[in-house]
Write a structure and sequence with these properties.
Layout (H helix, E strand, L loop, with lengths): L1 H19 L39 H11 L14 H12 L9 E4 L3 H14 L7 E4 L5 H10 L3 E4 L5
Parallel strand pairs: 1-3, 2-3
Helix pairs in contact: 2-3, 3-4
């Protein structure tokens, strides 16, 4: 066991050194390594009027992450718990949805059922005034019920890889 752990640590350090040496700015197309625009308010972001109702001020991660996500850019963010990461990507997804289309427009995969259900809850809360339909497909639920709900049409499906 100890040998496996050492190998894992060695692989991790090797991966980190390889990542530090990469030139991400100009490889086969355009890569954005940073996004300079910081929006101090939700109004500055140009979001749908009914999105984020009741939330006064964006957190630091939301100030930097929502707009690039809405522009279709790849966004990788890391922050401590409770900083608004889930609301950041949920807002970006909800901003891009066409509520009038009664079909799935976004699929969110989460590593655990608990996280999938938390994401569904946040997505429902943020999309409450947008009439967005969200459903989570996770283990331990009735598959026929999931099928019925999905057949009726949902905008966003949140789930765990084992359920797909």
């Amino acid at each position: 066991m100890a040998k496996s752990s050492e190998t894992s640590n060695s692989d991790s350090h090797q991966h980190d050194s390889n990542m530090n040496g990469l030139d991400l700015e100009q490889q086969e197309g355009e890569f954005l390594t940073t996004y300079d625009e910081v929006c101090d308010t939700f109004d500055d972001m140009g979001l749908k009027e009914n999105l984020l109702r009741g939330i006064e001020k964006p957190s630091a991660i939301q100030q930097r992450g929502i707009v690039p996500f809405c522009k279709g850019l790849d966004v990788i963010q890391q922050a401590q718990s409770g900083t608004g990461k889930t609301a950041t990507f949920c807002s970006g997804i909800l901003q891009q949805l066409n509520e009038e289309l009664g079909q799935c427009q976004a699929l969110v995969l989460a590593p655990t059922r608990e996280l999938a259900q938390q994401i569904e809850k946040v997505m429902r809360a943020l999309g409450d005034h947008l009439n967005v339909k969200v459903h989570s497909c996770v283990g331990g639920t009735v598959v026929r019920e999931d099928q019925r709900i999905l057949s009726a049409g949902v905008h966003v499906v949140v789930g765990t890889p084992g359920c797909f």
